[in-house]
Amino acid sequence: MDNADLTATAKIRNAAVELFARDGFQKTNLRAIAAAAGVSAGLVVHHFGSKDGLRTACDEFVLQVLTRRAQGAGTPDLMREYLADPEEYRLHVQYMTRAMAEDSPAAQTFVEQIVDESEAVQRAGVDDGSMRESSDPRALAVLNVLLSLATLTMPPALARALGHEEFGPDVLRRLAVPTLELYTYGLYTDDTTLRAATSAAAERGDE
């Protein structure tokens, strides 16, 4: 992030977002945040009151940014948003992924909103004939979001498995067509596995 023209409050918040995303909330202290922002620890307390207050401000900021970007978007659109500004978007996604691991209220709100959006896109697609119906639209929406977020937070080992030293736009471009092939054509050539899973679910009383 370019902090040159930001206010002290925004510089502190941006530094905290980066450190919370990288190291987690518990391991990050106010002095480290202040040093990264180029201010005193006292100024951090002055603006945010405490580390918890700063965490709340960061949660609200990242939630607002990601929700705005995901508004009305399906899974492929999240990838396009990433490609438009990969470094900043990756940081925000990593922050929210960390928040999910820590089960923060902001993470729950974010997940609910993008799952709602994904489900709405799917239902609209079914209505206009561009998508197939699902036996469980909500679960499919969760799966779409899971795949999208997992793709945007790929660890280096998975990037290297594709021949890249680190995750970035080149990896996403490599994944784009196979992802759409999977969504468009599916994976299996017949419904044998689906019928077996459906039968097992019925025997367990899941249906």
Short summary:
It contains eleven helices and no strands.
Strand content: under 5%
What global shape is seen? Answer: elongated
Query: What kind of sheet is the major sheet?
Result: none
- Portion in helices: over 70%
For the structure shown, list the relevant keywords.
single chain; 207 residues; mainly alpha; 11 helices; Tet_transcr_reg_TetR-rel_C_sf; TetR/AcrR family transcriptional regulator; DNA-binding; HTH_TetR
Care to describe what's here?
The chain contains 11 helices and no strands. The chain is an all-alpha fold. The chain has a domain at 62-153.
Strand and helix layout:
Elements: H1 8-23, H2 30-37, H3 41-48, H4 51-70, H5 75-84, H6 86-101, H7 105-128, H8 137-152, H9 156-161, H10 169-185, H11 192-204
Helix pairs in contact: 1-2, 1-4, 1-6, 2-3, 3-4, 4-6, 4-7, 5-6, 5-8, 5-10, 6-7, 7-8
